[in-house]
Design brief:
heterodimer, A: alpha/beta, 5-stranded parallel beta sheet, 19 helices, 34 strands, B: alpha/beta, FAD/NAD(P)-binding domain, 3 domains, 24% helix, disordered N terminus
Chain lengths: 662, 460
Amino acid sequence: MKRKIGVYICHCGSNIAGYLDVKKVVGYAAGLPSVTVARDYTFMCSDPGQDLIKNDIKELGLNGVLVCSCSPTLHLRTFRAACAAAGLNPHQCEMATIREYSSWVHSHDWDAATEKAMALTAAGVRRVLYRNPLESKWSEVNPNTLVVGGGIAGIQTALEIASTGEKVYLVEKAPSIGGRMAQLHKTFPNLDTTGEMLKPRMEMVAASPHIELLTNSEITEVSGYIGNFKATIKKKARAVDAAKCTGCGECWQKCPVNVKSEYDRGLKDRKAIYLPFAGAIPAVPVIDKKHCKHYLDGSCNLCADVCPTKAIDFDQADETVNAEIGACVIATGYDTFDPSPITQLGYHRYDNVVTSPEFERMLAADGPTGGKILMKNGGVPKSIAIAHCVGSRDQNYHPYCSRICCMYSLKYSRIIKQMLGPDTNVYQMYIDMRCFGKGHEEFYKQASDEGVQFIRGKIGQITDITQGDEEKGKLIAVCEDTLLNDMIRVPVDMVILSVAMEPRADTEEISRTFLLGRSQDGFFAERHPKLDPVGTMLDGVFAVGCCQGPKDIGDTINQATGAAARALELISKGRVEMEAATAYVDAEVCSGCGYCASVCAYSAIEMDDKTHLAKVNEAVCKGCGACAATCPSKAMQLKNFSQKQLIDVIEEATREYAGLSK
Amino acid sequence: MGEVSTQYVTNQKQAVLVVGAGIAGMQAALEIADSEHKVYLVERLPTVGGRMMQLDKTFPTMDCASCIGTPKMSQVGSNRYIELLTYAEVTKLTGYAGNFQATIRKKARSVDIAKCTGCGACAEACPHIVPSEWNMGLSTRKAIFTPFPQAVPNVPAIDRSVCRIFTKHPEKCGAACVRACAAKAISHKQQDEEITVNVGAVIVTTGYDLLDPTPMTQFGYGKYTNVYTSLEFERMVSSTGPTQGHVQLKDGTTPKSAAILHCIGSRDRNYHEYCSRVCCMYGLKHAHLIHEKTGANVYQMYIDMRCFGKGYEEFYKRISDEGVNFVRGKVAQVTDITRTDEEKGKLVVVCEDTLLGEMIRVPVDMVILSVAIKPRADAKDVAAIFGLTQDKDGFFQENHYKLNTMGTLTDGIFLAGCNQGPKDIPDTVSQSIGAAAKAIALVSQMEKKQRRAGAEVKTG
């Protein structure tokens, strides 16, 4: 069949045309074998751009299309849809990435960038040359959704989906849902208490017949693909029978073992059998086996003895839940930076240097100080310094901005003034005041009007080595006041370090389980910051909330609701388009070694009973190509990625360097 | 011109109305269409796209806005679930969640969409020239016009407020456009049309306006030739704009220095107390573009550098490394009254450099005012139609400032984008997808309820 290929070079505004000679590439493309027409346009992805392709298909009878522009992850679907609309099988359309591979990376060498674009175009034409039309396949979508993480983000997504009557598995690692928000006292900018916002939502989750809540649980394995994932969830044993427990509290009151409470950031103790916090859901305690004497040396049965309903079950086994879902939403949250390495700030060295999360617990009525702002010795501080950007905007730790600290630092300032009186000195040592959201600037002004003192300069050092009587017994915050252009020493009773938000310690593990990418800052990578801020590179898997990047509660809820939209769309459609470029076996060549079946991650290959040759299950095959790469005799190939096609493309791309004639 | 498919899907599902087809509206419409619900996407201008299509590159990645916007525009124009109603406005909304009736006035374009081929001959022939709103008045358009070449639908409209035939202009044009049109698509007799549709939910995504800095006489906008607002500069630096992306002064020469002034009208008790959220970042973007295109000396006069998003701080550092000069202090005045030889012929930016502790005078060729984002001029009227309330700054009031910024005080009516408050494109898209979720959830619940009750679903 005579090949008639259309080549379209995109200017991409000035992103391509500003850095290489587009006209030269067009001229070169027009002269390539099998190319019927070559054109260029400012934005190929726009309507007029797509029309060029559609008209040429209809009028010139094109049976292959190459668009030289941006990355296929952006617009391959767009161009394939355009071809389909004009009656050409979408798999006859391919892209050559002359933006990311040439104009964007060789922006200072016009000639070289042009040459490279020409090579990529020639290779692209060869790529299209041997392509075959492929048929779309569809797969049913499982209407269940898996939400990983029961903080405000996970709760929001789950509630939104459950409101339509669809089932959600909400998996939470800790014994209770609530996440970081449950550890907060009040939120900016209205100073509402988090309890009144979070508690009702936690209760709705517990009450919803559509949400299967699995706390004290973790995902151990995930397989499958969009519309058809399988997740193995390990429900770790609480050692308490939830059906019998009444939440009376006798067990933890009698327990003799004290452990530092994670919820209270180590500032208060809990017991070995414990409820993480007063409003925990489920309201069923859990035994911390690492510290419980019964498990360590069998020397204690106190809780079991005092439990009026005999709900303690030391032999309770972990449970495995197998969930089948259509979509997964990752909402695993964040950790905070430990400022110990920044020794000059004196954290863990001086009593009254605390981190922001620790201070937050201090403010809470159920916290280590019963909601009072107190120094280690029980005294009331008369002056407090709040240090911004501890670990953020810092080449040595995290170059990024943690987005919420300016606002919560202001929040602390105002709460301190409210609780300790307007005469308490509150100092904010900042670089920039990032108060960008609705009501935030006004909040800043209120803090300023209330007499909070702002010092523009990051704190260089906290020391207890004092100079003069005024400084005696205090901590000195040494910093440059950039507006006074002077080093200053500020004597205070207490220092709060506004520490950076960081990705959780288990981010690596989660990213491996769900095949998630990570951005440079270590948080999960969104598919595209503008085109798709809730998706990830894996279809059907979404990442929302702070696990994707620092943000406040409002922005978290927006993003989490967005992920719900995506899940609902999948469910509403009921089916999803499958990869058409699947693997196939040349039975004449296959020797039946079975290597292909052993590397298939989707169990899509079977060795036939009678012929003992490999057989591909097209419905399950995801087209990853692992089998084709493994097959020693090249009997296993991937449609439109055959050995011949690939080698041809490489030869064309490297023609100049391989010394082959042009 | 692409084929206009009038084959919209009809199914047993409820429809949703989306008002405003900028990035927020287009994103919401596409999400809802993806859930196989019909969408009526209403847009006041003759084309979809909104403010985002007026932008050239977007921070922090310097992606071009068109590369992201035009495919979405194309999709809303061709998706079988989306009935696109451009050059149209919602005039009335009655009913309640799950059962709204919306009256939509389709303004007469004076051009038949089905016949028009988008050839552009009409605009070429038309003799009447007016300033182009799309290009912020930096260039002109005709009375019959398409806002920009990638418009969807790619069909011009006649601006009847200036068209000589309607205004009975003394200089006749002899209906030049009609004569030039080979497809016979133009008719000055075309009438407005009114339709009423039934929808289950409404999402209002009407966008924002920018502050007009003319009253701030100290900055010389409108008085000095080379003082621009940020959006005017954005059009200049766009490859599809009035100067094809060349940064130049009004007289065509290339500037050797430029000053970017932050917080013009924002963080200002005399105008708007709030922060407009995106200007620090687009100020950096402008600085980068000016420097890259002209090598000019760029100064940024700021109060705080608000670079809070993913990749934003890193972008700040990159621009700083490129040699942009940061001056911490809001500009008090822009003047052409010069004192020294160095200042001669230039605009002088007078401000306090708070880090030096001194007043300074910075002579530059060009000044860009980062003006405040504000609610649209007709926000009050739109609020009345959709039963919305406005917050103290005139933006539409969300249901809860933290827990539900997409809902409003009326069930079934949702918000997304800058009409609820200033925000950048990633946050707009997130919120818009969230609003779509709420709309989809609502109509899905309604459909389930009605199916259970054995009632017929009221389809659009």
